Amino acid sequence: MAKTAGLVGLVGIGATGCSTDEVLRFGWPEAVTPQADKMRELWTWSVIAALVVGVIVWGLILWSVVFHRKKSEELPRQTAYNLPLEIVLIVVPTVIVAVLFYFTAVTQNYVTDKSGKPDVNVDVIAFQWNWEFQYPDHKTEEGKVVSTVGTSGEVPIMVLPAHKRIQFTLRSTDVIHSFFVPEFHFKRDVFPQPEKNNQDNVFQIDQIDRPGAFVGRCAELCGSYHAVMNFEVRALNEADFDKYIELRKEVNAKTGKPYTTAEALSQVNCGELCAPLATTTTPFNTDRTAREASGAGQK
Q1: The domain containing residue 44 runs over which residues?
Q2: Are residues 157 and 50 in the same domain?
Q3: Are 92 and 85 in contact (CB under 8 A)?
Q4: Distance CA 187, CA 149 (A)
Q5: What is the pLDDT of residues 247-276, one digit of tens each?
Q6: What pLDDT score does 196 carry?
Q7: Strands laid side by side in the 202-205 sheet
């Protein structure tokens, strides 16, 4: 019986096609920030602890079913009180909850810590149904803050440096949205007038561990086109990011206007990471004729 159960378990794990690392993450995306690593560790060990408790409970249930099944019409000896057992049933769950609370509090304090001085500040502005990313420490030659806004045909790209501390300040201009990048393992609601709604709308990440492109989403139902509020985080190495920011400040000689995000990225020589348009997600297709009506063309 045990061999069969073990074989079934191994086949089940193998059939998922998951690597050891993926199995230990229990479905969480691969982390790209130190904060995300800490949250993933908390999640992993919490699940392992829950599985251990579950196996013990399942074992006790099975043991009771097998060894305490009805064997005769004689009524078994009735026990009114079992003080040692009752103490165990109180102490063990209390210890488990206390341990989980401790590690949760430690992780939460680390994730929400803002004591470090940020290398880059980004203001994230959410609105129906789009995002604007502003860099308040950088201004164009015209004196305007460098910013990126999405359009109907262009997903907004938030360009950030890898290996630098980044501070995000969030606000909404209409309803509640939610800033979520799965690889950051961190979701933060975006409120209108956060100072009046008693919301902590600022958070930091120690760094993005590696250059890359990561999809971002709104994780709060915010209206009819909530599903189209996607964006992309583009993490570049420090030199490429600095070049990108400098280009965003300058005027494009061809257009007579400051470089847009796409124009600046196309001028930075960093391969696929400098693709002018988002690569991890696409705009919502608003063409009514993009698909045929159900059953069209069928006889």
Answers
A1: 18-65+84-111
A2: no
A3: no
A4: 21
A5: 999 988 888 888 899 999 999 988 889 998
A6: 74
A7: 145-149, 130-139, 120-127, 166-172, 202-205
Angstrom distance (rounded) from CA 54 to CA 65: 16
Q: Total structural domains in the chain?
A: 2
For tokens 């570049």, the residue is 236
In a domain, 55, yes or no: yes
For residue range 174-227, list pLDDT tens digits in order: 999 999 999 988 889 999 988 777 788 899 999 999 999 999 999 999 888 898
> What residues in the chain have per-residue pLDDT under 50?
17, 297-299
pTM of the model: 0.79
Q: In the β-sheet with 186-190, what is the strand arrangement from edge to edge?
A: 157-161, 230-236, 212-218, 177-181, 186-190
Please report, for the domain that includes residue 206, its CATH number.
2.60.40.420
Backbone angles phi, psi at 216, to 5 degrees: -125, 155
Q: What's the CA gap between 200 and 170, in Å, rounded?
A: 9
Specify if 292 maps to a domain.
no
Burial 86-97 (b: 16+ CB within 10 A, else e): eeeeeeeeeeee
The pLDDT of residue 217: 93
Report yes or no on 198 lying in a domain.
yes
If asked whether residues 160 and 224 sit together in one domain, one would say yes
Task: Decide if 12 is inside a domain.
Answer: no
